[in-house]
Amino acid sequence: MELSILLPLTLLMGLLVLLFRGHPKARGHLPPGPHPLPFLGNLLQMNRKGLLTSILQLREKYGDVFTVYLGPRPVVMLCGADTIREALVDQAEAFSGRGRIASVDAVFQGYGVIFANGERWKVLRRFSLATMRDFGMGKRSVEERIQEEAQCLVEELRKSQGGLVDPLFLLQSITANIICSIVFGKRFDYKDRQFLRLLDLFYQSFALASSFSSQVFELYSSLLKHFPGTHRKIYKNLQEINAFIGHSVEKHRETLDPSAPRDFIDTYLLRMEKDKSDPHTEFHHRNLVLTSLSLFFAGTETTSTTLRYGFLFLLKYPHVAERVHKEIEQVIGSHRQPALDDRTKMPYTEAVICEIQRFADLLPTGVPHVVTKDTHFRGFIIPKNTEIFPILSTALHDPRHFEKPDTFNPDHFLDAKGALKKSEAFMPFSMGNTIHIYLGCHLGHHVSNIT
């Protein structure tokens, strides 16, 4: 029987079985929401314009906390800055579980710093942040690697001699190259064939994961994983990247100098050696490869897209670009590279970077979380392992925190005296010191010198 006939028939049979069984009752006392259908959940009640539009419409009816069934599984939506902060900060431990992303789950399987849970996630996150912040005495810091790449970008742009340039490829390249420098201890030429292959695999995978077929796969992965689809192409792409990382790890083993670790892989290998007698250690080869892959996931797409939006906003709002340029001239000048220490002296540039991240709204529905236990929240009882979507867009466009939320305006982050003003609603990539926030802020700040 042809696959084109088999797949709809299988889906129909599954639907009929669930219709006869009825929709399973969730434990606990979930927040209210639209009544779900068996198997389909609230799919037929969603707006065709997309998930975010549907969520915003449901918020008007059900408030800041409500439940939506994405296929057969319930997902609790958290809207508004205060609600998200109450969950992810005030009840951080209960909401600290990492949600599963079906299209890449076959690759990560709960390993690596992004998709790990519990103690594994805590250990890997702590190690990754500490390693990226400071490689130690005598070793190049992340800041120096970013400065080097920013200079390479400037030189590449100068080659155009004022001609038209599409910056998309270069913005992707510099982001990936900084992570390559951190993880592998080397940067690549922008025309290096191996580097171009890695870039193609990464951005092809991101595009596939964002496609309509992948969104359908997220809803019904337990059934669709047995059939061909974009999830298999994503799996193949990421496994090829993992093979490259694994080969690099072996070369690092052969050339490792314990007294002078060069990069993230060297530092991790030294920790593996230190913990080799511990049977429960999280520092093993699988976590090394998948944490390295995680660093690319955390820092490539979000950072390069933020930079791209930043260039577009500066082109659209020349008065903003003029003020940024003036502040750069005053603080840095044209004869040296920007440094992290300059940041505190450049409140307007910092406010522009924050407003770019707020207005671009790159992760509107946030990264999925899972509650680690039965959790009392705003009068409801959310059962253990229930998925949580922090709708970050509702925080970034909260009129209680931003005077004109639908307008690009750096003054949202400046007080009456022109000093930088923090906002509790500013959570472009969720709450806490996540790795991609760290990379994004550094990249955005240093590269701003070329505008």
TrEMBL record:
GO biological process: epoxygenase P450 pathway; xenobiotic metabolic process
Membrane topology recorded in Swiss-Prot or TrEMBL: Peripheral membrane protein
Family stated for the protein in its record: Belongs to the cytochrome P450 family.
Cofactor(s) the record lists: heme
Keyword annotations: Endoplasmic reticulum, Heme, Iron, Membrane, Metal-binding, Microsome, Monooxygenase, Oxidoreductase, Signal
Localization of this protein: Endoplasmic reticulum membrane; Microsome membrane
Coiled coil: none
Top-level taxonomic group: Eukaryota
Catalytic activity reported: an organic molecule + reduced [NADPH--hemoprotein reductase] + O2 = an alcohol + oxidized [NADPH--hemoprotein reductase] + H2O + H(+)
Function, in words: Cytochromes P450 are a group of heme-thiolate monooxygenases. In liver microsomes, this enzyme is involved in an NADPH-dependent electron transport pathway. It oxidizes a variety of structurally unrelated compounds, including steroids, fatty acids, and xenobiotics.
Signal sequence coordinates: 1-28
Gene encoding the protein: LOC101700457
Protein's name according to its UniProt entry: Cytochrome P450
Species of provenance: Heterocephalus glaber (Naked mole rat)
EC nos: 1.14.14.1
